[in-house]
Amino acid sequence: MTNDLSLKHTWKSDLISGFLVFLVALPLCLGIAKASGFPPISGILTAIIGGLLVTFFVGSEMTIKGPAAGLIVIALGAVTDLGQGDPFLGYKLTLAVIVVAGVVQIIFGLLKTGVLGDFFPTSAVHGMLAAIGIIIISKQAHFLMGVTPTAGEPLELLKEIPQSFLMMNPDIAIIGVISLVILFGLPLIKNKYVKMVPAPMVVLLVAIPLGAYFDLSHEHTYLFNHTQFTLSPKFLVTLPAQITDAIQMPNWSQITSMTSIKYVIMFALVGSIESLLSGKAIDGLDPYKRKSDLNKDLLAVGIGNTVSGLLGGLPMISEIARSSANVNNGGKTRWANFFHGGFLLIFVVFLPMVIQRIPIAALAAMLISVGWKLASPKEFIKTYKVGAEQLIIFVVTVVATLATDLLIGIGLGILTKFALHIIDGVPFASLFRPILTIDQSDPKVYVVDVQHSAIFSNYIGLKKRLEKLDPDRDVIIDFKNSHLVDHSVMEKMHEMEREFATRGVGFHIRGLERHMPKSDHPAASRKKPTHTSHH
Angle of helix 40-52 relative to helix 294-311, nearest 10 degrees? Predict the structure, then answer.
């Protein structure tokens, strides 16, 4: 496509998209910060840095940088574990962790580890995200009803929901439930004008007046059904008097402790995986079919996180929901991300009183809808459709994450996948190293003969070999001598087919006629029945 994508030609569509993304980002940044145990303003600070600074370093044109629901669990865990009962100290100690994790991501970017996004099996990553969704819901359901839960662990929090329901503060619950109805109901309306208005914005337009009607800004009590309830400003978002007061310096006193190191690893790993996945997903939606430089993008996110941690902000990633809103609203270049940060800055500086009127129950509703998208039953069904073995990996990851933490969860998910591969007969020799030969006798076509197995853990090696080939020659990938081609590799093969097609080069997969797919899904794993391997 020959399109002039210079600022002179795209500023209008980028400005409009940036504004619409800002409307979605504003409440989410506040909600994510609050749920992470950070001051609400720190979420906006992160998105401002992600827009105004990181835009100049990014390797992808369409992604929006900002705080992510997927990191809430890690941030809150760090604040709780490091603060030992002192939330403000925990927050300052976590900032130091974020700075170091940012530096680690810069190193990831410089070492070109963007390929690691290809190592993690899809089902384990989706399982981790689904678990995060469940954890967010388990916590926010209580705030939606105006109740502070007593439990700390996700499974305990889920068990406590019925009790919070019985103890709910009716006025707060009204705001929360109406917000939920808007978030889940509005997308069902098929009118194109309704579709143009972001649901989170409608929630604010309804929730702020409701908060004023219930007079949340003054402490008072009311009777409902013979019970006395209290309403007070604690049910509203709190902001510092000046934006400059939002800037907090990290506390470095515990940075070498094992707890800090564990959270550095979690922020750097999970944040990088999520950013890489978002970048790839958004490349698939980009109308101009541009391909992100994921290493450069990791570097950009690392720079953003380093600065964000130094100033008191949350960690950021390339955020999938806001990035897809950017694509849907007609954003064309990275300037949409810049404008979204600009609008947030203007809003915080000139209209802070609007933010202080937002009821926390409305933010809880938004986070519940984000959590639901990550963990909805659809995700389980979608995974099952790819194959029963994928559902096993998915569920193991979800359960392990809920019972322990993210690192152990995704680790067990990956181990489960290895175990299933070994049961399927994958030889140890080809677990991490692809065994293949490349026939170059035809000057127009490479024939790549993949032997033994093509699985998630040896795919990076396969990809590296393919990247060294002449980009203008057609490629045939022949799987007739491979015993197993797993779901992750099938998915990557379809991605490559699309990529080659955009370059106008042929990419063909053959030799799978005798393999049995594990389901009807085009990306299902395929295994060769043992009795056909001896000719």
Answer: 140
pLDDT at 532 over 60: no
Number of other residues whose CB lies within 10 A of the CB of residue 245: 12
Whether pTM > 0.90 for this model: the answer is yes
Q: What local confidence, expressed as pLDDT, does residue 531 receive?
A: 65
Residues 95, 462: Cα–Cα separation, whole Å? 39
d(CA 303, CA 301): 5
**Residue % of the chain over a pLDDT of 90:** 88
User: Residue 162: its pLDDT value, please?
Assistant: 97
- pLDDT of 402-411, one tens digit each? 998 898 999 9
Structure confidence by residue, pLDDT tens digits, 119-130: 889 899 999 999
Question: What is the rounded distance in angstroms from the CA atom of residue 329 to the CA atom of residue 62?
Answer: 11
* Nearest residue to 137 via CA among 365, 345, 302, 358: 365
pLDDT at 108 over 80: yes
- Rounded Cα distance between 125 and 397, Å, is 8
Cα–Cα distance measured from residue 493 to residue 477, given in angstroms and rounded to the nearest whole number? 9
243, pLDDT greater than 80:
no
> CA dihedral defined by 327, 112, 475, 62, rounded to 10 degrees?
10
The burial class, CB within 10 Å (0-12 / 13-18 / 19+), for 172 is buried
Query: Can you give 232-280 as a three-state secondary structure string?
Result: CHHHECCCCCCHHHHCCCCCCCCCCCHHHHHHHHHHHHHHHHHHHHHHH
3-class DSSP string for 317-367:
EEEHHHHHHHHHCCCCCCHHHHHHHHHHHHHHHHCHHHHCCCEHHHHHHHH
**pLDDT value of position 152:** 86
Task: Tell me the torsion sign for CA atoms 481, 486, 487, 493.
Answer: negative
How far apart are the C-alpha atoms of 287 and 332, rounded to whole Å? 9
Give the Cβ contact number of residue 533 at 10 Å. 11
Q: Is the pLDDT of residue 75 over 80?
A: yes
CA dist 184 and 313 (Å) reads: 30
In the chain, domain spans? 7-373, 428-532
312: left (phi over 0), alpha (psi -120 to 50) or beta: left
Helix (H) or strand (E) holding 112, with range, is none
Q: What share of the chain is helix, strand, coil (3-state, %, to 5)?
A: 65, 10, 25
* CATH 3.40.1010.20 given to domain 428-532: no
In angstroms, the CA 369 to CA 364 distance is 9
- Between CA 210 and CA 231 the distance in angstroms is 13
pLDDT tens per residue across span 424-467: 999 888 899 999 999 999 999 999 999 999 999 999 999 999 99
* Residue 30 predicted with pLDDT over 70: yes
CA dist., res. 447 & res. 147, Å (int): 63
Handedness of CA 377, 382, 384, 390 (dihedral sign): negative
- 3-state SS, residue 288: coil
